[in-house]
Amino acid sequence: MKIVPTRIMILIVFTLSISTSCVPMGMGMHGKMIGRMMSATSDRVQSVNMGQAIDEMIEEAVVDLSSHNLDISSIAVWRIKSRTAGLDVEMIRRKLITQLVDLDRFKVLSRERLEEVLEEQGLSLSGAIDERSAVDIGHLIGVEGFIDGYAFIQENRFVLNFSLVETKSGVIIWSKMIVRNVQ
E strands within the chain? Predict the structure, then answer.
């Protein structure tokens, strides 16, 4: 029987542990490092899966919006709010705008133009839209509706809620809540 040197044996155990995603006892710092690498990979996979879920949820909302016979042809996406730490609401907003533009049913006012007009009037995107401001701002920027939204994660559920406020009346004329389970 041939005796395997200790260094070769350690290398074999280490290689097997990486390939089987198993960290043997006594690996010390190497085991912790592998654990962190596996955790980071898991976080990236969850982030990718979450991004796909968000895309699908936004698509569902846009399809639902387009299925209603609304007398609106021009809109602005006001803002998406969230109290969930780490949730990229600007990314959600941009994806919503992209899908609305791709739908080719609405004229969508660009954020730059929206901010420019609001700045001229001494207003900002951070404020809430109420009946009065929706009518006033709608006339100022020439849109017939604003989409406002809220996104959050609670108890392993991701929730997106969008509303469309008509600028003629300040009334919410469409709203959609979409919920997905997350791991």
Answer: 74-81, 107-108, 145-154, 157-166, 172-181
